[in-house]
Amino acid sequence: MADKLAAVTASQSDVEALTVRRGAERILRLLTGAGFDAYIVGGAVRDILMGRTPHDYDIVTSARPDDVIQVMQTNGFKAGDPVGKSFGVVIAVVPEGAYEIATYRSERYGADSHRPEEVTYADTLEEDVQRRDFTVNGMAMDIHGDIIDLVGGQTDLKKRRLRTIGKAENRFQEDALRMFRACRFIGKLDFLPDGKLLDGMAPNFHRVSGLSLERVRAELDGLLLTPAVAKGLDVLVQSRLAECTCKITDNGKVTEIPILPELYHLVNLPQEKAFHAFDGWYHTLAVVVATPADLTLRWAALLHDVAKGMPGIRAIRNNRLTDYGHDTEGATMTTELLTRLRYPAAFVKRVAWLVQSHMRFHYFVNNQEANAHKWMRKEVQSGLFRTSDELAEAVKQLAAVCAADVVGCGRPNSVTDGTWAMGDCLAAIADELPIHTRDLHYDSDFPRRFGADTGDMLRYLLERVRSGSIPNEPKALLEAAEHRRQRLARLEAVDAEGRPERE
Question: Taking the model in full, what pTM does it have?
Fold first, then answer.
């Protein structure tokens, strides 16, 4: 059934992609029919050549914005310039959807590290292509499907190489965000960076401080979800780009924000060979790769060992390298790091909890005598989780990170069966441990039986179930509630008469 559903979903996606392409081709026909040059350009062309299905298309043309609007409206289609004609971009709406149509242009960058200071119209495709970032994004395709490659993009595709259009140092000087985009594209395409691309980064690190935190964080998140995430992260960290600062602006006040300086110390960090085949950084990369492409999991994997090697953590005991306490210190560092990058508080807490808990999880996997119920009761009482479902979700995420941690150690014959089994066990326990009174499995008739005392009674039962004295089952809850009601009635009688009630 699941396979059939996946096939249907894939088929629907293919149909939608084909529809989008037909809309782009419709626009090319209209513009070329009116005597203008018009091409599909950028990522869509790259994806087509790589055998991938594009889901959006960028269109460039020799027509000026007013000409584009006139052509579209003459043929009965809406066209306007919500992006702004000053940037040479018109939004056209055809039956297949809305498309951005950009006039050939060149750009001049100034003090800003991302936005062009001046945009001027160009007369040729070649001029337009030269302003773009990477060769694989600089190819065009005409209405007939012919490829116009003026920058060597096809060669770089074959070599699986990411290379800038023109001198890398110049491209990054124009727009510092391109350095982060390079890391993301390396991860997305599973390419290797051209040597000159890497050489062009460091001279422009000073430009990163002009980038907004919002844009940098978007690139980081995009990178973490890419298929070849390890390659992109390795460039980000080993180039020292991660140690740069960007900015936030609050009420006109600019504050510099360090990006990810906490990671570089892991590079070449020795680890105990009995447990790890890799140094601290390559172990981290291996764990990230082995983790599902989920932002919470990938951030937890990236930061799970961030405190290893830190003063007060790294030591030698019994002739072995140790990092006792790196989980706790790592959670503190994670909280500070993600808060600094302005992630939502709930997201920060969850990632920090995963970092904090990963060594305890490994301990429980390897020690059958450990009391899993006691651990989960502690988490229930911690105040970190609002519902049992939330805790169950968290321990399943923890199992995923810890399974990746086992794989990332690089030791032969590593198995994760016990890790996943422990995750299922803890999730089952969490499901039965109520965090809120709404997690109690009481009968629907319970509120009628206890009336105005229902809330107080449920809070009493919540503590009883949490302590393990009664199971979270309707019959047990009702019996405990009735027993308490009777006991309270006897106590009230004692208070009223000043002597014990006769049975």
Answer: 0.87
